[in-house]
Amino acid sequence: MVTAWAPATSANLGSGFDTFGVALDRPGDVVTVERAEETTIEMRGLGSEFIPEDPAKNTAGVVAAELDAPARITIDKGVRPSSGLGSSAASAAAAAVALDDLYDLGLDDETLVRAAAEGEAVVSGDAHADNVAPSILGGFTIVREDGVFSVDTDLALVACLPDRVGSTREARDVVPQETTLDELVHTVGSAATLVAGMYENDPVRVGRGMDERVVTPARAALIDGYDAAREAALDAGATGVTVSGAGPSVLAVCYPGRRRDIAAALTSGFDAEGIDARAFQTRVGDGAYILDR
Ligand SMILES: Nc1ncnc2c1ncn2[C@@H]1O[C@H](COP(=O)(O)OP(=O)(O)O)[C@@H](O)[C@H]1O
Ligand SMILES: N[C@@H](CCOP(=O)(O)O)C(=O)O
């Protein structure tokens, strides 16, 4: 029997749609696997009643099929589903790492990321790897068709999860399919600034580099309370605020000492619109690891 933990993640970071992601140091999912003839899944924890136990519909079950590693899988959810915090990815990442260990497969990180991304295809319609990559590798990650790499970075974050659900599949439908050259230039400038900021552990550059004007506004329009929460967080000292993943969570980057105030500002911003929300004071963290074997 092998047990692995994998973290929640925040994808896109504004300017890196389907490309950038960060691992959060909390919360995370715990996945236990045991060898079996056929894959079965048992769900526990946050929001588990909304997650299918059919292995063909659960991201962890899809990973077991991809790796040809059938197992009795138990998932303890620490990341609420439909959150914008990579809930479906955390289970896939933990399952990939646990099954690799259980069956002594010796797979490299890239193969684990690709297998875990197939789980995402089942829930969102696309094998986007920008959540599973940081959940497996940790740090800040950049995913392209031809590879994935991670950058160690020391950055304070606040993630705020409103009491609403958001489907990644539905939020992908509102993404504009076309943009202008001006917007492309702006996004490239932001993305480059963000990457420089990640290497320099600079929350101001990262915050500025999150600015993006095509995908983010389309997603923000689906999130009740987003504008109020964002304004309140910026007033409280956040150096950048954007939609986390496909939403409804909101991600703020800041200096470490500002986290408490920004967490309060984000929740009060949602509260002003009559929406309960929970904020996590966190930072960029490590990737999945084996808890027990
Ligand atoms: N192991 C899993 N953990 C979480 N959600 C899962 C899992 N397997 C399948 N799902 C489904 O994935 C959807 C949530 O994923 P998604 O919409 O991408 O949101 P999130 O940002 O929280 O990952 C839900 O419909 C949920 O039932
Ligand atoms: N790049 C994806 C990321 C979805 O992240 P999630 O945490 O909402 O699953 C997208 O923006 O659709």
TrEMBL record:
It is found in: Cytoplasm. The keyword Aminoacyl-tRNA synthetase does not apply. It catalyses: L-homoserine + ATP = O-phospho-L-homoserine + ADP + H(+). Keywords: Amino-acid biosynthesis, ATP-binding, Cytoplasm, Kinase, Nucleotide-binding, Threonine biosynthesis, Transferase. GO terms for biological process: threonine biosynthetic process. One of its GO terms (cellular component) is cytoplasm. Gene3D superfamilies: 3.30.230.10, GHMP kinase, C-terminal domain. Coiled coil: none annotated. One of its GO terms (molecular function) is homoserine kinase activity. Its EC number is 2.7.1.39. Pathway: Amino-acid biosynthesis; L-threonine biosynthesis; L-threonine from L-aspartate: step 4/5. Residues 59-139 form the GHMP kinase N-terminal domain. ATP binds at residues 80-90. It holds the Pfam family GHMP_kinases_N. The keyword Nucleotide-binding applies. InterPro entries: GHMP_kinase_C_dom, GHMP_kinase_C_sf, GHMP_kinase_N_dom, Homoserine_kinase, Ribosomal_Su5_D2-typ_SF, Ribsml_uS5_D2-typ_fold_subgr. Residues 195-270 form the GHMP kinase C-terminal domain. Belongs to the GHMP kinase family. Homoserine kinase subfamily. Catalyzes the ATP-dependent phosphorylation of L-homoserine to L-homoserine phosphate. This is Homoserine kinase. The gene is thrB.
